[in-house]
């Protein structure tokens, strides 16, 4: 079965290349759907497949930059991108990203990068999963209360409304972001983008894992605009990140190219799917994906404390991360096909009715 493995020229490690294709295509769909580069699954996925963590970080950032460009173009056509907000956030993202990347280089020098980054992933994924499901539960309670009162809840309203408190902080300059429909201090998106950029530089993600929820819960963007704007931001920060990690010699371009082949097709499917799956459908699927990814990272951490079960845990971690990518990709694709069929049927009925008139 040696033909299923390819030795990476820079990292010097043998890699199961079908796993790279599954990650690339699957995360292309997931990234286009959730509005993020998908590195929150690919970086631990590459590490689980055999890449040293620093190479997993740099390689995925390179793969993510090209894929996000494709998804951003699609979302722009649907009017889901607030370019003004995205450009403002670049200020904090670039600075934060470089600070995080320098911290990774320092952790690598002292030999702690693998364990530290994995634990950061676990805590971050756990917090985000809690935040998403808490928001969904709170939103449902609001809907039930409104139903009892004979009212309706705003379709764009969220369960968690931290952004309403932050919008009350009027530190000049104040700015209006038309596509997102919000008015706030310029410093709110700048500070949020710095923090997400810093974490992105450490964890090797374009920031989508944390920026998309931050855009919804802290900045106050509607979900579909948060998806498109985040992809725009991921595209630019990803290009910067790819350059800085390549300069540091931690990017395996061969692996990035293999994943990008599948991702270029998957990103189109994921982006179109957001047309048919809105708001809380996106958030619930996102929450379950985060939990699956967290389980795979925990499995990879266990052998650090119980070395005797390393082989079993490594196999389970690979199965879990590839399984989550595959199942979620299939779910998104099926929902997209169902939505497209309904749309076509509706258009046919409308055309028949017009002809009948």
Helix content: over 70%
| C-alpha termini separation | 65 Å
- SS elements, strand count: 4
Mean pLDDT: 78
The number of domains = 1
> What oligomeric state is this?
single chain
The unreliable regions are none
Number of helices: 12
Query: What sort of overall outline do the alpha carbons produce when their principal axes are compared?
Result: globular
What does this structure look like?
The N and C termini lie far apart (65 Å). This protein is mainly alpha-helical. The protein has one domain.
Spell out the key features of this protein.
357 residues; mainly alpha; two-stranded antiparallel ribbon; 12 helices; 4% strand; globular; 75% helix; 4 strands; two-stranded antiparallel sheet
List the helices and strands and how they pair.
Blueprint: E1 5-7, E2 14-16, H1 17-34, H2 39-49, H3 53-77, H4 83-109, H5 113-148, H6 162-166, E3 174-177, E4 182-185, H7 187-203, H8 208-219, H9 223-247, H10 253-273, H11 279-301, H12 310-356
Helix pairs in contact: 1-2, 1-3, 1-10, 1-12, 2-3, 2-11, 2-12, 3-9, 3-10, 4-7, 4-9, 5-11, 7-8, 8-9, 10-12, 11-12
What's the short story on this structure?
The protein contains twelve helices and four strands. It is mostly helical and 357 residues long. The chain has one domain (2-356).
